[in-house]
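hey can u check if this looks right to u? its 494 residues, i copy pasted from the old doc so theres a chance i mangled smth
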Amino acid sequence: MVNAHKADAWFALAIATRITPGMLWHPCGSIFRLIFVSGGPMEAGELDNRHLDLIDAMIESADTSVSDERIAQVERNACPGCGCCSGMIYGQLDELPERSDRPGSSGQRYDCLLTHVGRTQLFRDAARQIVENAYKYYRDGDESVLPRSIATRQAFLNAMSLDIAMGGSTNTVLHLLAIAHEAEVDFKMDDIDMLSRHVPCLCKVAPNTQKYHIQDVNRAGGILNILGELSKGGLLKTDVKRVDGLTLAEAVEKYNICKKEVDTEAKRIYSSAPGNKFNIKLGSQNAVYKELDTDRANGCIRDLQHAYSKDGGLAVLKGNIAQDGCVVKTAGVDESIWKFSGPAKVFDSQDAACEGILGGKVVSGDVVVITHEGPKGGPGMQEMLYPTSYIKSKHLGKECALITDGRFSGGTSGLSIGHISPEAAAGGNIGKIVDGDIIEIDIPNRSINVKLSDEELAARPMTPVTRDRKVPKSLKAYASMVSSADKGGVRIID
């Protein structure tokens, strides 16, 4: 807890998606001075000349075709040290403020590994910056350093454009909407839908591909070089201010690694490399890449002409079971199943879904439906990484879909659609689906429907909840006031 009347400014340090939103909600709802820094990502694991991460270990551990010896090897090598996940998985939401120009952006070194000396230098630079910003506000009366001065509508649009271009986590959709609500910024689900229709996918990172992890993004120039490629196409507003005093345009130019004379600091930052050994000590190694990845045609970061796909990495779908929208990470979906139709297999909890998948109840062609895991139904939105991982464990990743009013991890890939709104617990139609109903998904046309007429759907009763879940009074109070995910799962207080 930070009491604003007892602190001049706040240095926020986070390492996971559960902490980050709260660190940003508070300053966005006040005049509090904030600078935000993430702990940093871990290195990708290495086994048999293949990169590994947490998701590989989860998938292979539940795959009956994989030997115990192989699983043990994967588990020993998948996470070779400290830090948030090495791909777009759990911890990458907390990096988003560093990616762009939103409140607390400490700037340019998001991709630098936790074990690298560059991460500790980032902490020092950020600490120096927040002191300077406190002086600017108290001594000079400069309100441009306040979160609400930085967290403008355009800043949110820029940040979301970046996440779409990266095929980032659906978590960022949920939390950006919530932070915008707290900051009283006009930023809605429809804005995300609008952006997804013209922002291409310029960077793919695990689990969307096994070829690249966060360390590879860093070698290619990191977040600011993705923003640079977007700005070339006029897809960003670059005159917005960052917490370090630069405009986004100035930062993009300074840290551009593709120009003839690369800035010395930029070269140092983006040359930082993994130590390639087990390491749990912050800032304890100083490995460097001999060359940066400036290949914008075939490298980790692409230019607009060589985009991984013209459609962005995230998309909003609507239909008769998601009138207010839902979210799919298209970067993680094989194009062969962008259009999918199949019978529903309905579960009213993540636990029941896991049992059904592992027990063989789910077969090729099915659409797994998980209800009552939304903000009100959970209550809260637990991270559902296990069902999606287990579908892959059963070799059904390209043969099944999964839809829910809950949320997934950034580690999710495949045809997994979350945040269906209104949620079941709020009377949403997803709560009326029964086994055998045909679910039709069409990503190119941004639609999701159950194959029932409006009259049939209206006449359907809500499916009774069979699970036995103990809910504390604190979460019952939250559930009584909370919105569905399309508004960020925020408490609505008149």
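The chain has 17 helices and twelve strands.
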